[in-house]
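Summary for the steering committee. One of the milestones for this cycle was to obtain a three-dimensional model of the protein with zinc ion bound, which we needed before selecting residues for the alanine scan. The sequence and ligand used are listed below.
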Amino acid sequence: MTFNATTVAAAAAHAAQTTTQQLYANIDLTKLSWLEQMWAAWYIWIDNPIIATGLMSFLLHEFVYFGRSIPWIIIDSIPYFRQWKLQPNKVPTAQEQWECTKMVLFSHFTIELPAIWLFHPMAENFGMNTWQVPFPSWTTMVPQIAIFFVFEDMFHYFAHQALHYGPLYKHIHKIHHKYSAPFGLAAEYAHPAEVFILGTGTIAGPVLYCWYTRNLHIFTVYIWITLRLFQAIDAHSGYDFPWSLQHIIPFWSGAEHHDFHHMAFTNNFSTSFRWCDRIFGTDNKYREYRARISAQKAAMKNKSKSERDEAERKLIAEIEAEGQRAEAIAEGIMPASKTVKAQ
Ligand SMILES: [Zn+2]
Ligand SMILES: [Zn+2]
């Protein structure tokens, strides 16, 4: 090789590149999509993959969580939408929403933020692609995300039931049940231990999948986390619209399913899908309640709207009172034998 001015210049240019830039040395970035170029630019700009992945993960969570909650805050402030509210007499006040926001932000900044810098080393350790571009194709990502949905739903079903066991409920899960009529922002209103336990269901799916297959990009994980956040926030929204997803996909849980869990303190332990509760019979009270609501609506077809609303309110109050008794039993405040159930 002739050692001339050109090779000196090339060597100097190479030395001037940061370590992160060198990662992309053999990739023609101009041939990539805009998003992939931005992705590489982010890693080059931060110039530290641990910080780049950690910060992006944290920002994604904040933007999606609060961004998705804002429409629900607006909907709660418009009386027109009350007709689709599952517990119409329980609309969260601005004060309640603000208290909830403060608690969620506190846990994001004190628990999630310090831990999130472990995300990149953990991902690399399991062979997950992070800074790499291009992204996988849609045909690779879609089945992976479907697997994560199913895994998380089953994990959550059993872990959530465990959290209803007396001591675990009293010391951990009770915080999440503060709201018997939940709202979007309340999705992550929970004890840090609960965030950790139930968050495992969201993260363990991708980690285990990656460990077995060595074929997963963190971009796919971000899409999964975004969809999972949408699912959690929407399930807590307290609204069941005619166009809600559960009316299009019958096995999707949605707010109509999870709202009952908060109202009745029992049944409906899963997140995304209805099948676990159906298979294991933990949706019996929920289905009985839906049947009673439908029967009541049919029987009161000719009555005035206020009479129908009053009857619905009564039924909701009855279920909620039963839920409060069940909660007291779980906490050991009330012995199980003292309950009088009208069944
Ligand atoms: Zn629960
Ligand atoms: Zn909940």
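Key point for the committee: Confidence is low (pLDDT under 50) at residues 338-343.
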